[in-house]
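TASK: fixed-backbone design
INPUT:
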């Protein structure tokens, strides 16, 4: 009996002593992916944008039924960010993590803004829904799968989500 209790206690404690919690991993992902992503848009920095993706990225453009991959996709995306004044914010709806804490999946909404010729500041242009597959490479989270589509949500619905990441002023 004493051995059974000891085994049960050790099993219970092992649940809390090994690995990271989803909240801790979500914070790592925020630091490694979402903050640099928003900064890349804000600073028109193509290299920062490319640095958060794996070299073998798979990009699914759902409404067009199109898939783009690898360096050619990254170059096109980086050129877009470098040549346009744009902003982006993210609302994270869910995070799933593998038992080893090396792969994750997130989905949520994004808010896209841009500055046109006649605009004094960034203007919200619309919202989308995204899904990303993430994996750790050399200790940092990277996007290896990215898909999105337009989402007919309101400003209020976006802002009412529990987890919203945005740069101040965007």
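OUTPUT:
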């Amino acid at each position: 009996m004493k051995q059974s209790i000891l085994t049960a206690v050790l099993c219970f404690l092992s649940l809390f002593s090994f690995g990271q919690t989803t909240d801790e991993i979500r914070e790592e992902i925020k630091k490694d992916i979402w903050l640099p992503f928003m900064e890349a848009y804000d600073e028109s920095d193509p290299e920062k944008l490319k640095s958060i993706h794996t070299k073998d990225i798979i990009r699914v453009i759902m409404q067009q039924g199109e898939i783009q991959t690898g360096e050619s996709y990254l170059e096109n995306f980086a050129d877009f960010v470098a040549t346009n004044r744009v902003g982006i914010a993210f609302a994270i709806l869910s995070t799933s993590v593998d038992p080893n804490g090396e792969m994750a999946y997130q989905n949520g909404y994004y808010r896209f803004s841009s500055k046109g010729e006649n605009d004094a500041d960034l203007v919200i242009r619309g919202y989308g829904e995204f899904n990303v597959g993430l994996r750790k490479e050399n200790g940092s989270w990277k996007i290896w799968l990215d898909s999105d589509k337009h989402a007919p949500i309101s400003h209020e619905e976006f802002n009412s989500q529990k987890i919203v990441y945005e740069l101040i002023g965007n």
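COMMENT: The helical segments are 2-17, 22-43, 46-51, 70-83, 155-159.
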